[in-house]
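Hello everyone,

My group is preparing for a crystallization screen and wants a predicted model to guide construct design. The compound we'll soak is calcium ion. Before spending weeks at the bench, it would help to have a computed complex in hand. I've included the protein sequence and the ligand's SMILES below. Output in structure-token form would be ideal because that's what our pipeline reads.
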Amino acid sequence: MPTQILVDTDPGVDDALALCFGLGAREVEVAQVTTCCGNFDLDTVTRNAQYILDVVGASTVPVSPGARRPRAQLPLTSAVHGKAGLGGICPRQSGSQMHGEEVSSSEATRTFLSDQCGEARTLVALAPLTNIADVISTEAHRFRADDRLVILGGAIDVPGNKGPVAEFNFRCDPEAADLVLGNAPCRVTVIPLDLCMRNVLSMQDLRLVRDPAFRAFLRLLCEEYASANAREEGIDGIIMYDPLAMFCATHPNAFTYEQMWMRVDTGDSFARGMSVIDRRLQGRPAPNVSVATSVDWCLFVETFFGALNSLTFDESFLRNS
Ligand SMILES: [Ca+2]
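Reply:
Good plan to model first. Here are the tokens for the complex, ready for your pipeline.
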């Protein structure tokens, strides 16, 4: 029985790769997608999420828009995902558009947590944590202790990627990130930048995508992002932030973890959005998160491309992109 997952996302090139990964992986079933302002404004990321679902024939997966802005600051954006958020792809509105009545992300998440009550469930948080914080504030009673929340966020022993010490998702909404880490009523796993910076695909690796049209589409998606990573992070390749979080939903046993106490700085200094870890030997609080410290990279590559190769790419999107 596949694990039912809700993906909260802000596509974003790596979000798009993670969505494709989740849709193709047989270990999970993407039951719901929710969107949050992050890499771009809410309307752009919602359109991009819908577009990616359409491209791989998953238009029936519901997409529900969430927060237009963070809890306590103005929205920030990212510069590494190209003009419209999907690298060299120019996403047009597809015929399917939004499906049915528009349902808000909070309503959709409430339904997800109520409906899937007999199944294994995981929330995969690939965006700033605004939507997840809202749900935890109002719907904590709907969570089960064995639910999993996988968060792409935090920088522990590496520099930040949005300011000197803060990781992008935490920096975009520090109040939400801290609320989630401090109050999540389920098991929380954090995939930090430390792990992502060590696990990178090259553009050449995309040759493992068998369908030539899908391969060309993914090259268009990733090329600018890989150059931006080289420019901004000194890493020449496709940093797999969000796909690694998705892999943690499909294969939790492919990672090693360290139990940590982690919160997020919500002050107004250079440290805003920084992940704060208590590593004192004496007197530190009980751990609240499992932080992924290593991953079986060969298994990731095999699973990731296996999932992509199981999808049916609609070639008309390559002609129209
Ligand atoms: Ca993201």
